Structure formats: structure tokens, C-alpha cells
Amino acid sequence: MGIILCRECPMLGQRHVQSFLLFSAITVNFMTKFNAGVAVVAMTDAESTNPDFPEYDWTEMQRSYILSSFFWGYILTQFLGGWLCRRYGARITMFASTFGSAVLVALVPWFVSWGGWQAYCALRMAMGLFQGFVFPCIHAHLANWCPVNERNRLGALANMGIDVGTLVSMFASGLIAASSIGWPGIFYVCSGVGIFWCIMWWFFGADTPGESKLISEAERIYIENSIRSSHKANGGHAGTAIPVPWKAIWTSVPFWAYMITKCCQSWGFSTLQTEMPAYMNGVLLMDMKKNALYSALPYFASWVMAIVYLIIADILLNRGIMSITGIRKTINSIAFFVPAAALIGVGFLDSEQKTLAVVLMCTNVGINAGSTIGSTINTIDLSPNHAGILMGIANTASNVIPIVTPLLVGIMVKDVHDRQQWQVVFIISAVIFVVGDLIYLAFGQMVTQPWDAPDFLDKERSPNLQEDGYSKALEAKESTNVDEAKRKESEAGLESEVPKKKGLNDEL
To answer: At what angle do helices 60-74 and 14-44 cross, to 10 degrees?
Structure first.
């Protein structure tokens, strides 16, 4: 399949606007998602931020419930998000998702004042329910807007919102909590940013290039021809609403390879994201102010490395140095193997090696940023028509991991100051990283699957109908033969009785 070049369309066009809108959507939703880490500290230790606001006496377990409650709802609506996106389009679905989450986060200060930590958990679970729609829509929208040779670039640009949202949430939440508006301001600011994004999305978002009122004719033709040529090369058609081939998806080896790889990535990343601050405080003996700074540095490294990966992948692809399959598998291997080694290395450091520990943590998260280009956007390769559905399934599975890993860490780490107990946690995560990449190398594919075709179910049904018709014809023929045999036997029996009757009459 050749690369379609855009000679007349703008170098910066509506496809980049859509990618930026997706980037900012992830950013504002991640701000809402991760502001609880800082907010809970401020709400339970007002002296550390602004003592003019209420302080709550919550136990460590109650705080853990608050932090994890988001995922209780998040894993429940991934499938629904994929279906809603197919039914109503990404524009309406993402608007409802972000707007609902933005409204709910603004209610936290009022609800907590009378409902306590239970009310906070309920609100965060509801926010998770709304945000479960986001990533299925992200992948479906990218599939509609990304020319084939720009999938890496636009997909990676959109997913940078993960790092930026986490980074901004950590820094901005701390600054806001210490300001004159205190910890309630964290929720009001996040709400305002989310509603502002909804306004921008409503005016500039469009489900497809054909529905955009701002796109140039040259850019629209470029995008549609590129996507159409990709589908034709793989026996399909673009932009058609088609039934979901559930059986084919669930029995697809490349899809299972993608989903397992995503779960392994989630395991390693969630271990670093949720447990590394506790390790830094318990083993490396870093105070909380430095901890907050050092906890944010890895996400800055991830943002920078995402740009580096993007530039390298663009050069390799556009100059024909490597195929898309080679690029994805190579970058994914780097993004998994290096952090696996870094995780093990961190586990052997002590309080005398703080600087090296921070360097390794930044290396871990920064290098792992390649997983976006390596495997995360593989859904668009496998099935542009069902990218949202695939992401919904895989995201449901992978987001169970952040619920499970803290529980396992709680079982394995009885003493947060015991480095050997943490080593077991990091070694397990490293092994899972390696296993996930080996599965991806062996079974992952970067080509559109046969079940992506709109007429796949019809073609699959046609041989079955022919086979059923042939079986029925054989049965009818066999039935006719049996009836004919019985008729002949009956006639033969009647003929044999005639001589017998004649002989009997003669004897009489």
C-alpha cells in the first residue's frame, strides 16, 4: 500500500485541530481524575496548604477508597462508550462525558461537607462512569481523521494529554490548594477548564472530515482518499456503520495480543504511578515536598520523550526506513524492556542514592512513553471501523489493574521501610513488562483484520447459508429416495401376492 501525499492540503489543518482537541480532552479529564491525590492530602492536613479551610480526619483506608473509587465506575462504561460513539458519534459522546465529569467535580466541596468521604467516593465513582466514554471515542475519532501515514503523529499528539494532564494536575493542584481559594479551588478550577473545553469541542469538533464546516476541500479529499485506499487494500470500506463481529473479535489472536500487552503496560505503569511515592517516602526517606516534586518529574520526562519518539517514528516511516510493523514492535520493545530493567534497579537503591533513584524513575516513565506509538494506538491498525469497540474492551481489562495492584502491594509490603519487600513488587512488574512485549512481538499485527470489512458477516453467513441449503437438498433427496424405495417394495410385495393367490385358488 503506497503512501498518499498531500500536495495541496495545508500542512496544518483541521486534522491537527481535531488531534489538539483530543489532546486537551485527555488533559482536562486527567486533571479531574488525578487531582484527588493532592486534594486528599490538603483536605486531611490543612496546615500543609491553607489552614483557613475545613480539615477532615480520614483514615488511610478511607483515603485509599477515595483514590480507587474513580476506577470502580471507570471500568463499567468502556463498552458503553464504544457503543455510544458508534451510535451517536464521538462529538456528542465526548461532550457528554467531559461535561458530566466537570459538573460532578464542582460538587465535591458541598457534598463532602455533609456526606464525608463516602460522598466523595460516590462522586468520584460517578466521574469514572462518565470518563469511561473518553478513550473509546478518542480511538474512533482518530480512525476517522488520521491519514494512514499520519496515524503515529496525530495519535501520539493526542495521547500526550495523559502525561500533560497528570503533570498539570500535580503542580496546579498543589498551587491552588495553597492559594487563597484553598483546596475547594482545585475542584472549581478543574470544573471550569472542563466546561471551557466542552464549548471549544462543540464549535470545532466534527465526527468526520465530511461533517466539518471548517475543513478545506483539499484536506478533506486527502484524508478520505487515504483512509479509503487503506480499506480497499484490505478488502473493506471506510465510514460505514456496520454490525460488530463479536465472535471474530474475541477469537482474533492479534487483538488478544494487543489487549494482553495493554494490560501488562497498565500493570507496570500503575505500579510506578501509585506505589513509587510510598517507596520514595518509606525507603528513600524523602520528605513530602521533595516527594511531590520528584513524583511529577517522571511525567515531564514522559512528555519530552513522547515528542522524541514521535519525531523518530515520523522519520523512519516517511523515509521508508522501516515499516509500520517494524516501528511499532521496535519502539514497544524499548518502551517495555528498559523500564523493566529500571524498575529492578530502583529496588536496590537506598536513602544514600536519592539522585540515582530519581534518574531511574524518570528513565522508567520517560522511556515507557513509547508504548503509545508502540502498542496503544494499534486498535486503528487492526480495525478502523471498530477501533472504539476494541479500545473499550481493552481499556476495561487494563483498568482493572490499577484496582488490583495496590491490593497486591498491600499483601506483599508489610513494612514500607523494608527494601526487600519492595524489590519483590518491582521484579514482578518487570517480569510482566517483558512477558507482555514478547507476546506482542510474537502475535501482534499492524494490518487491518478481515473482520473489519463491512460485509464480513455477510460473507461469513453466505457459506453457511449455502451449506445449510446443500444439507437440506441432500436431506430432501434422501427422503425422496427412501419414499421411492418403499414404493417399489410395496409394488413388489403386491406382485408376489398375485401368484400366491392364484395357486391357492387352483388348490381349492
So the answer is: 160
Q: What is the pLDDT of residue 503?
A: 52
C-alpha distance from residue 364 to each of 270, 359, 369, 417, 429 (Å): 12, 9, 9, 22, 12
Kindly tell me the burial class for residue 250, based on how many C-beta atoms sit within 10 Å of its own C-beta (0-12, 13-18, 19 or more): exposed
**Residues of the chain by 3-state class (helix, strand, coil), percent to 5:** 80, 0, 20
**331 touches 374 (CB < 8 A):** yes
Closest CA to 430 of 280, 274, 268, 257: 268
Distance CA 103, CA 123 (A): 10
In sequence order, what are the residues at sequence separation of 6 or more whose Cβ sits closer than 8 angstroms to the Cβ of residue 460?
245, 248
Greatest alpha-carbon pair distance for the chain in Å reads: 131
How many CB atoms are located within 10 Å of the residue 499 CB?
A: 9
- In this predicted model, what pLDDT tens digit does every residue of 65-80 receive, in sequence order? 888 888 889 988 888 8
CA dist 495 and 153 (Å) reads: 88
Cβ atoms of 406 and 273 closer than 8 Å: no
Residue 200 dihedral angles phi and psi, to the nearest 5°? -60, -40
The residue count of the chain comes to: 508
Half-sphere exposure of 352 (CA within 13 A, CB side): 1
Q: Which residues 6+ apart lie within 8 Å of 23 measured at CB?
A: 157, 158, 159, 160, 161, 164
Is 94 in a helix, a strand, or coil? helix
Cα–Cα distance for residue pair 429/372, rounded to 1 Å? 19
CA distance 31 to 25: 10
Q: What pTM value is reported for the model? A: 0.75
Identify the pLDDT of residue 471: 53
Which parts of the chain sit beneath pLDDT 70?
1-10, 48, 230-241, 273-278, 281, 286-295, 461-508
Which 8-state DSSP code applies to residue 375? Answer: I
For cell 527494601, name the residue: 419
Scanning the structure block, which residue is given the C-alpha cell 486531611?
44
Handedness of CA 119, 125, 128, 129 (dihedral sign): negative
Residue 91, judged by CB atoms within 10 A of its CB (0-12, 13-18, 19+), counts as buried
User: Are 286 and 280 contacting, i.e. CB atoms less than 8 angstroms apart?
Assistant: yes
C-alpha cell read off for 505: 385358488
Q: What grid cell was written down for 74? A: 471507570
d(CA 303, CA 488): 86
